[in-house]
Amino acid sequence: MGQKILKSLYSFQSYKEKKILMLGIDNAGKTTILNQLKLNKVVESIPSIGYNVEKIAFKNFKLSFWDLPGRDYLRKMFWHHYYNDNNALLFVLDSTDTDRFNEAKETLNMLIENPNMADIPILILANKQDIATMCIERIKEQLELNKYIGIRQLHVQGCCALNGKGLNEGLEWLSKILKNQKF
Ligand code: G3D
Description:
Elements: H1 2-13, E1 16-23, H2 30-41, E2 42-47, E3 52-58, E4 61-67, H3 72-78, E5 88-94, H4 101-113, E6 122-127, H5 136-142, E7 154-158, H6 167-179
Parallel strand pairs: 1-4, 1-5, 5-6, 6-7
Antiparallel strand pairs: 2-3, 3-4
The protein binds guanosine-3'-monophosphate-5'-diphosphate.
């Protein structure tokens, strides 16, 4: 038993750590997504004032999710401090909130166009699919993401944070890119 634990601890240490910046406007479902991911394989939680870091094992990676608050004034005040040295950006979208779709779109576009994000993959989780009426293709159109096809490593994955559907698929896409990442 002890041997087994030591072996898994040893193998976990050899997991490659990747830093994922997790952003989205407030109420998109970031906290619920992180809680759902933590149900699987949480490794370490580092709660902090203003942001949370959760380290989760996925495939051969230790993914550390840096979750920043999404309220408008906090976005303006804090986000830019965290744009450097990330391996990926995870953007969470509320697929149902048509009233705030433009706000989410502008926020996402600002991030995609930021030079710090130019070389990292961007996973967009179109959350709340359990109650969404827009299909993923329509969401991509509305977010004007088609212009990035073939140019950027960008993927839109539908998901439901409440039951976890779609989350693994999103992380699968991300891990394939991270596997070939040089940094
Ligand atoms: P945030 O951390 O991005 O601000 P939260 O968002 O995770 O706090 O979620 C905001 C609200 O959306 C919560 O409802 C939460 O339960 C709900 N939510 C999150 N993901 C889903 C989903 O996939 N489907 C549905 N139907 N609801 C979801 P409350 O009522 O607690 O504010």
